[in-house]
Amino acid sequence: MYAPVRTANARAALRELPLQDHSAYTFIDVGSGKGWMLFVAAEYPFRKVLKVEYSTELQAVAEANLRSYRHRSQRCKDVASIHANAAEFDFPEENLVLYMFNPFGPEVMSRMLANLERSLERSPRHVIVVMLWPENAELVEEMAEMKVFQKTRRHHIYQTQTA
Ligand SMILES: C[S@@+](CC[C@H](N)C(=O)[O-])C[C@H]1O[C@@H](n2cnc3c(N)ncnc32)[C@H](O)[C@@H]1O
Fold it and tell me: Are 160 and 129 contacting, i.e. CB atoms less than 8 angstroms apart?
């Protein structure tokens, strides 16, 4: 299912991130649809902003949007779009902000989190998980490395303890 996020809700979550220096983090919108969230994230000075989308059709729209996007409020210039299945995605070994707005069911989520766990074993680092209108949040909470930072009605934020 594709449903874009309400920008105000996404901004409210991004304002709360437990980090000091955006430039030390790569932001990834996992299950990114047409990519609107990329532009919201790029208003912050992240090191890099990525999106991962599985649907060929939505990916094509996102890439066209990305080519034409220019905005005065853009502070991250390194913005890229990746066509991939989140269940098979290899996370960059960098500090990460993983953002999800209910992109998929528990099966894909479990496979993606198992990949993330392996990546954290290889390379312990600060990873922040932001879930908007969270479903399947219990799968994140089951991860030994992830601790709750904040829960509101609209979003949950988790982080690893390696800051
Ligand atoms: C609810 S939309 C979220 C859109 C965007 N993240 C936002 O906040 O506006 C969920 C998106 O996840 C994508 N998706 C579903 N399964 C996926 C998978 N296995 N890998 C990557 N993307 C997936 C869908 O195609 C859809 O575009």
Answer: no
